[in-house]
Known about the structure:
- There is one protein chain.
- This protein has 362 residues and is of the alpha+beta class.
- It is 40% helix and 14% strand.
- It has 15 helices and seven strands.
- Strand 5 and strand 6 (301-312) form a beta hairpin.
- Helix 1 (8-19) packs across helix 12, helix 3 (31-41) packs antiparallel against helix 9 and helix 10 (140-149) crosses helix 12.
- The protein is elongated.
- It starts with 7 loop residues before the first helix and ends in a 16-residue tail after the last helix.
- 33% of the residues are buried.
Amino acid sequence: MSYEYEPIVDKLLVWFDENRRILPWREDPRPYYVWVSEIMLQQTRVEAVKGYFDRFTKELPTIEALAEASEEKILKLWEGLGYYNRVRNLQKAAQVVVSEYNGVLPDSYEELIKLPGIGSYTAGAVASIAYQKRVPAVDGNVLRIVKRLAASFDDITKQKVVKEVEREMKEIMPERAGDFNQALMDLGATICIPNGRPLCEKCPIAEHCEGRKQDVMMLLPVKPSKKPRKIEEKTILVMEYESKYACNRRPKKGLLAGLWELPNVEGRLTVEELNDALKELGITEYEVELLGKAKHIFSHIEWHMLGYHILIKQKTDNIRPNVSDAGELSRSLEEYSWMSSTKLKEDIALPTAFEYYKCWER
């Protein structure tokens, strides 16, 4: 038996008018702002995004400014948000908008979804919020609400199910499409929450919720269990020489593709093993400080890290090129990029995984 969603529309809009969250991109919903905020909000909490949004739009106030910015600049502005391909695709899309749309973000779902990094949800959010087009914006929040309302045990990770929800939402989309989509977003973020028991007593559409009536809210929505993350142990080396720090680029493909990183090796080196590795590099005059353990969680991988600060005291002409096998450290020190603390703070985007080991910020 299909669920009738029409009765929730007006009640959600009334609730939204009285309870809407005050967010910078809502107070000034120009298309560029809505777009940037939606990309930032993917995999990131609203409260965490606010500061990044203000900084990003202050430094790059227009689509043209974003299109022309250096990659280092956009990565630095994104530093800490993670998922750096999001901002790379944001810039690629900005460049397309400048070259093919005269710098004006398209107002139709069909044109928006053609742009790099814009999927069905983002296209719907921008088209409805910025341009009031009557299209849905179905994300995890909406899927959770809809499946609880209908007491549906469909697997929300299946594309067929997502498409069905998009069709159902499009059928009931009101003239105030952007407000309706944002009402669903707010309801999912503050009341029909993903973790813990939903706050049904505060829900404006609780009387229409089959999940509540059947007391199955905590079982919904249905999605397969995640596979356990792969654990990778790493030793992080903060190598300092004449007040500069060694960094190198990660490969162009794979995890943290093309980003700067601190030198690191697989496994956890003991002090004795570290001393051996440094000798292989030709480093004989140094001081070592244990920086301790840290953990960073990616989508499918966990890094369990141990860090050392190595203060190098010898002259560079005493550091010979290395030709022996010392794992990832099998290179001469001259092959690293040596950066000042100022450059690292102001210009270089280091992934959050290395946050604990930023000695230059202490």
